[in-house]
């Protein structure tokens, strides 16, 4: 879950790479570093901390030369220290590598290299890569051959970028199961973890597993896994789709919550024919399994209710990290829907690989264009909600639920009706966000010192209870649980005490009265009840008012004020909602 970037071209590389690196910070922000090459020397700067702090202290952007690589880290192997920060080098400091992924067999490789006399400076798995390249160079291989051979020794997943003193102006990049994009611009070429970090690139190329990209200032060559030169198809990159700033907002998270209505509108801009075809495939499939992680999984769980309620199609949702344990029952008559904002989540990719190997049809619901997942799928439905930068997912979840709503209605041949309903909902959501802001700030002030929060709901609203709890834990570090309201009495009620906040999501749908009853049980134990509903009830100590909407759309509207609540609680507790501790936006490790 790290970000990597490299540039070689006519301009000075360090400022360009630094600008791209900042855009990759969502992938990890434990430490960062850069290496550049000029006149037969490599220059390095790296440290623990966030990019801006490191830049202030070490002036990353001042490194000389027109070729540079850089890294922002989310620690997996080895603590957060300067030594473990990337780039990593060989024994002679003549090869520098930045890497995203995990080398599973690094211990074995490291021991073998140490036996051959290599000296290691860090505890990372990455450091074996420059030493392996060094070893293959000693055997008389070219830089390209040595890099390819080294990559073939690595087990696990990786995307790495490497420079060497012996081949000035050249950058090599290679991947397996981790994202890598090559950008071709007017003044130089790029290799990076994602398209967001590329600047002024006219076209991009996505290398497949094992293909080596050889970047020069004036172009890129590709070698296949056997080392034969190949032609790769490039696609154009519309930089207008890559707006990436906070505008007038203090944090990306607030901006992205406020963009939830727009995300719904964008999700409706779809090709009806594709939806109708996929809807028929879903209806025909012997079994439909949805797989996802975290917030995307909660969107999938809402989708599951929608498929069942709207289209009478039962399906299951399997947490991606558990998918392999069910994979024996996935076959050619299974349709698997993978849901992922980033399209990079390792657990999802791993599950989809297994499903593909078993012959299943793969449909993915993805935000990031050109992501690993989208390229593995038979069909891709894009969210189109624009880059989501805050680590905590917000607008992408709302888009994902909108896509499920459209799919469910497409199964009834009512795609257009659904798209229309969603557009109306977007307007209602805009009003809801505006109308609840001040009240939620007051609520956050009142509960900022609390250590436990509970969220309950029934039916298709219950995944929203789980999502609200996840968001709260993730950014404000308050312990929270979200559960189907009927489950409260099977144990969790024991934890409800005087003043314990319990959020009761009870829109005026078929879940209303049963959920209220569960809320009353909690209140009888002293709970402070925060009701989320379109109708007021005497049970509520605090009412978050949502509008009355089509019964199948409540999850899409009730999640927004709860995202706001998590956000304001984080602010009141002094945590950074955009960069929560121990997390990263793209979870590319298993
Ligand atoms: C929570 C959050 C994570 C992600 C999860 C899956 O706010 O952001 O739980 O939802 O890591 O990520 P994607 O959707 O990129 O597969």
Kindly summarize this structure in a few lines.
This protein is an alpha/beta fold and 590 residues long. The chain is built from 16 helices and 25 strands. The N and C termini lie close together (10 Å).
Please describe what this structure looks like:
The protein has 590 residues and is an alpha/beta fold. The chain folds into 2 domains: 3-241, Glutamine Phosphoribosylpyrophosphate, subunit 1, domain 1 (4-Layer Sandwich), CATH 3.60.20; 252-572, 3-Layer(aba) Sandwich (Rossmann fold). The protein is 35% helix and 24% strand. Strands 3-2-4-1-10-9-11-15 form an 8-stranded antiparallel β-sheet, covered by helices on one side. A 7-stranded antiparallel β-sheet has the order 5-6-7-8-12-13-14. Strand 9 and strand 10 form a beta hairpin. Helix 4 (128-138) packs across helix 5 and helix 12 (395-410) packs antiparallel against helix 13 (415-447). The chain is globular, with a radius of gyration of 25 Å. It starts with a strand and ends in an 18-residue tail after the last helix.
């Amino acid at each position: 879950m790290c970000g990597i970037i490299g540039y070689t071209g006519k301009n000075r590389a360090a400022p360009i790479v630094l600008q791209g690196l900042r855009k990759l910070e969502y992938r990890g922000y434990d430490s960062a570093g850069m290496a550049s090459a000029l006149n037969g020397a490599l220059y390095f700067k790296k440290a623990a901390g966030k990019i801006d702090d490191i830049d202030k202290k070490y002036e990353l952007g001042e490194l000389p030369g027109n070729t540079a690589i850089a890294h922002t880290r989310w620690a997996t192997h080895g603590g957060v220290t300067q030594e473990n920060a990337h780039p990593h080098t060989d024994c002679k400091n003549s090869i520098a590598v930045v890497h995203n992924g995990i080398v599973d067999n690094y211990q074995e490789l490291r021991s073998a290299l140490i036996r051959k006399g290599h000296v290691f400076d860090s505890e990372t798995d990455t450091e074996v890569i420059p030493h392996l390249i060094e070893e293959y160079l000693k055997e008389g291989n070219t830089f390209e051959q040595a890099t390819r051979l080294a990559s073939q020794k690595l087990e696990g997943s990786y995307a790495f970028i490497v420079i060497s003193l012996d081949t000035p102006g050249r950058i090599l990049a290679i991947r397996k199961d981790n994202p890598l994009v090559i950008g071709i611009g007017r003044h130089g070429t790029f290799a990076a973890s994602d398209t967001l970090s590329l600047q002024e690139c006219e076209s991009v190329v996505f290398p497949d597993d094992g293909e080596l990209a050889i970047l020069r200032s004036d172009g890129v060559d590709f070698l296949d896994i056997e080392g034969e030169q190949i032609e790769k198809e490039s696609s154009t990159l519309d930089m207008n789709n890559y707006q990436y700033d906070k505008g007038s907002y203090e944090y990306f998270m607030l901006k992205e919550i406020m963009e939830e209505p727009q995300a719904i509108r964008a999700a409706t801009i779809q090709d009806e024919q594709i939806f109708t075809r996929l809807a028929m495939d879903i209806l025909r499939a012997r079994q439909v399994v949805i797989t996802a992680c975290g917030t995307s999984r909660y969107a999938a769980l809402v989708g599951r209710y929608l498929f069942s309620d709207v289209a009478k199609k039962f399906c299951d949702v399997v947490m991606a990290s558990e998918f392999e344990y069910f994979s024996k029952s996935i076959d050619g008559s299974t349709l698997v829907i993978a849901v992922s904002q980033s399209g990079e989540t390792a657990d999802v990719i791993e599950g989809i690989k297994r499903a593909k190997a078993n012959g299943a049809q793969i449909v993915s619901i993805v935000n990031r264009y050109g992501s690993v997942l989208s390229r593995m799928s038979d069909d891709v439905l894009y969210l189109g909600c624009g880059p989501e930068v805050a680590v905590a997912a917000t607008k992408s979840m709302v888009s994902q639920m909108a896509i499920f709503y459209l799919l469910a209605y497409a199964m009834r041949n009512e795609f257009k009706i659904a798209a229309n309903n969603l557009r109306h909902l977007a307007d209602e959501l805009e009003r809801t966000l505006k109308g609840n802001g001040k009240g939620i700030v007051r609520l956050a002030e009142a509960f900022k010192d609390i250590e436990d929060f509970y969220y309950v709901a029934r039916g298709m609203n219950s995944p929203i209870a789980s999502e609200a709890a996840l968001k709260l834990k993730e950014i404000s570090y308050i312990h929270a649980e979200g559960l189907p309201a009927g489950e409260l009495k099977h144990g969790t009620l024991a934890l409800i005490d005087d003043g314990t906040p319990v959020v009761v999501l009870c829109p005026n749908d078929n879940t209303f009265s049963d959920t209220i009853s569960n809320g009353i049980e909690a209140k009888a134990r002293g709970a402070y009840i925060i009701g989320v509903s379109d109708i007021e009830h005497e049970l509520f100590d605090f009412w978050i008012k949502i509008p009355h909407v089509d019964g199948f759309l409540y999850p899409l509207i009730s999640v927004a004020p709860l995202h706001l609540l998590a956000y304001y609680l984080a602010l009141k507790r002094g945590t950074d909602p955009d960069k929560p501790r121990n997390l990263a936006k793209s979870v590319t490790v298993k």
